[in-house]
Amino acid sequence: MRKISFKLGLLFFVFVLGIETVLFASLYVTLVNARIHEEFEQLLARGNNHRDVLEKSYHLSTLEHVVMMESEAETDVVITDAKGNILYFSDRILPFAKKLIPHTDVRHIPHGGMVVQNNWKKQAYIATASPIRMDGKTKGYVYMFQRTASIQNMISKLKHHFLVVGIVSVFLTIMTIFFLSRVITIPLIRMKQATEKLSKGDFSVRLQVKGEDELAQLGKAIQTLATDLEYLKKERNEFLASISHELRTPLTYVKGYADIARRPNIAEEERANYLSIIYEEAEHMQKLVKDLFELAKMDQHSFHIEKQPTLLCLFLKKIYEKMAPAFQTKQMALIYRCEENVTVHIDRQRFEQVMMNLLDNALKYSHQGSTVSIDGRMEKKNVMIMISDEGIGIPEADLPHIFERFYRVDKSRSRTGGGTGLGLAIAKEIVEAHGGSIHAISQFGKGTSMIITLPRSE
């Protein structure tokens, strides 16, 4: 639990910290450059203002006034003649000005002025120069100076602010990532615990899933898996119990009657009767094993359907002709109707197995003198086959379960009650393997209709 939270949180932290570092560095550099550029612009603008005043009134009083103004400001001024000789200056700036001015190439200074000293990191001052021009000639230059200590102090404060904001941002990032990693990993941890329970055979897993994102979909998939496995476990247990029950009864009969038939003092007629019962029970077990084998092949997806184009009416007619004698023996009527001889793609042998099973049930659970009908017709884009009887019907409560394995409406499971309880389950599997569906409509005491729907072949 901690490993995934730590790894996910660390991964998020590294990515977010990297992004924040790049953004903060870019912002810091941009802001510092903008502030320094602003300081240069302000100093140059101040020098240009003094230059403009001197160009309008170049007198001694004006020169002194300019110097007096700068003596009260944070900046300093030096006024030179056209050859670079210092005429007026602020007292504190003279040593630095004497070093800078002789090395300044005034020939390339435009009328708008320019920065002549911009090394604010190593020098004590930054400086600008603005030429004084009168009657088309250069009268002199106004040099403006500003201590770099103020700029460095501003940069230091800016660094401090960025450092504080950076520490707060990292702290908030850690808290946010911790919260988000917990929010993301808690569902994953619950899913991990759920899958561990599933691996141990505990299918009573219940995940509270909210939302429609990928994690929610994964949680729903695990919950669905748990529900399906729980259902399969229940079905398997019921299936094994049903097989045990189905085999126990005929085996009991076989063993019991075999013991009696082995007695030397019973009549041959009675022995023959017992052997006949043993034979019937052996046939019952053989049919049960055969049906189980069919279901096993279906479950393992090794049940092959070989479809062939088949004329529906011709196929149903052959089924009718094969089953009609059995109905006549029981004094029941079997009716065959087919409206349109459409073509369907079916595995004839497998589908005959379905039809024979349904008709056998209709024969078994219908009264003497009643009628069973086979109907084939088109319904929209599908082919519908319906087998209807006038038999005992199926109770409404049992109707949804009749296609389940070993399910019987007759809960007594009497030996004379008929088949193995697998016939309808096999029929459903075969029909669905053809891309169709099967369902039942029944009214208890009045009869049942089994309806098969198949896609029509083009």
TrEMBL record:
Recorded GO cellular component terms are: plasma membrane
One Gene Ontology molecular-function label: phosphorelay sensor kinase activity
Mind telling me which Pfam families this protein's record contains?
Answer: HAMP, HATPase_c, HisKA
Name its GO BP terms in alphabetical order: cellular response to phosphate starvation
Q: Where is the Histidine kinase domain?
A: 242-458
Residues in domain HAMP? 182-234
Q: What is its EC number?
A: 2.7.13.3
Major enzyme class: transferase
Instruction: Return the PROSITE patterns for the record.
Output: HAMP (PS50885), HIS_KIN (PS50109)
**Cross-referenced SUPFAM superfamilies:** ATPase domain of HSP90 chaperone/DNA topoisomerase II/histidine kinase, HAMP domain-like, Homodimeric domain of signal transducing histidine kinase
For membrane topology, the record states: Multi-pass membrane protein
InterPro entries named in the record: BphY/WalK/GraS-like (IPR050351), HAMP_dom (IPR003660), HATPase_C_sf (IPR036890), HATPase_dom (IPR003594), His_kinase_dom (IPR005467), HisK_dim/P_dom (IPR003661), HisK_dim/P_sf (IPR036097), Sig_transdc_His_kin-like_C (IPR004358)
**Domain of life of the organism in this record?**
Bacteria
Q: Where in the cell is it found?
A: Cell membrane
Enumerate the catalysed reactions: ATP + protein L-histidine = ADP + protein N-phospho-L-histidine
Write the record's keywords in alphabetical order, separated by commas. ATP-binding, Cell membrane, Kinase, Membrane, Nucleotide-binding, Phosphoprotein, Transferase, Transmembrane, Transmembrane helix, Two-component regulatory system
What's the protein name? histidine kinase
Q: What is the lineage of its organism?
A: Bacteria, Bacillati, Bacillota, Bacilli, Bacillales
